């Protein structure tokens, strides 16, 4: 299937329509709630699994140099705060058969179907659970059968009240090759916090840059349903190189980047100061040489002037003889 030109979509509620059937695929126990325009991912029984996939491939690269694009995806969901409740975001190559999302597995993970059935396919996926016992995430990058699964925890009171919703925003910054996951409680003024992040170079994973994105959920031992209320995905084209800036990174990563930036700025300032001092010293040296040269020339001119003796001009004496001639006397 050819990649969508815009490679973006937005569902503010999932009303039943021809475009919904064309663009959205439901697998497992997931189904569309006709009365609320939400997608019910899991049934109200334990061990239920449901998945939703955006059918159209998304193109992540542009140009002949295959520069990867930045993107952000946002979804609103609700699920109980019980042990075993997990929700996952999945990115797989567009060549993968979508029926894989309908495969069952014997694990309680939202990523178990990838670990068992996506052999030799490179994927990027992570799942998280939010409960009163703490927040944790599992990250899967590469081929599922050989990838190292990273476990981490993140802070923040994200426990949802009965019927409450939580928003999740996922951002990928192509310049820094980092994926950031942020949350916001319904009605909260503080946006997308707390969060966790991890490094991933998407350009090295997929040759053609076309991927399929989806959401997967499992309720483990819980007997309550999970819901997706809205979902959007947007490609953010990279700005020109001269507009690039260091992206905001969370927690320790931000501190590392800030410290590196400060070091670079310090080195830049030191180099600038050295250049200014060098220019100043050169200017002073040139000024001193100019003064010395002027004094030297002045001295030479003074010596020459003192050596010139004026010549004495001869004075001739002129005698004037006055002859008085008396008229009439000859």
Indicate the topology:
Blueprint: E1 9-11, H1 18-23, E2 24-28, E3 31-33, E4 38-40, E5 49-54, E6 58-59, E7 61-62, E8 67-68, E9 70-78, E10 86-93, H2 112-117, E11 123-131, E12 134-142, E13 150-154, E14 166-173, E15 178-185, E16 195-199, H3 202-205, E17 210-218, E18 227-236, H4 251-307
Antiparallel strand pairs: 1-18, 2-5, 3-4, 4-18, 5-17, 6-17, 7-8, 9-14, 9-18, 10-11, 10-17, 11-12, 12-13, 14-15, 15-16
Explain briefly what this protein structure is.
22% of the residues lie in helices and 32% in strands. The protein is an alpha+beta fold.
- How is the CATH topology of the largest domain named? Jelly Rolls
Cα-atom radius of gyration:
42 Å
Q: What order do the helices and strands follow?
A: EHEEEEEEEEEHEEEEEEHEEH
Number of helices: 4
In total, the number of strands is 18
Share of helical residues: 10-25%
Low-confidence stretches: 1-5, 240-264, 308-313, 315-330
Number of domains: 2
Q: End-to-end distance, in Å? A: 153 Å
Overall geometric form: elongated
What structural class do you assign from the helix and strand content?
Answer: alpha+beta
Quickly name the level 1 CATH class of the largest domain: Mainly Beta
Structure commentary:
This is Legume lectin domain-containing protein. Keywords: Lectin, Membrane, Transmembrane, Transmembrane helix. One of its GO terms (molecular function) is carbohydrate binding. With 330 residues, the chain is of the alpha+beta class. It has two domains: 9-242, Jelly Rolls; 250-283. The protein is 22% helix and 32% strand. The protein has helices at 18-23, 112-117, 202-205, 251-307; strands at 9-11, 24-28, 31-33, 38-40, 49-54, 58-59, 61-62, 67-68, 70-78, 86-93, 123-131, 134-142, 150-154, 166-173, 178-185, 195-199, 210-218, 227-236. Strands 1, 3, 4, 9, 14, 15, 16 and 18 form an eight-stranded antiparallel β-sheet that branches. Strands 2, 5, 6, 10, 11, 12, 13 and 17 form an eight-stranded antiparallel β-sheet that branches. The longest helix has 57 residues, at 251-307.
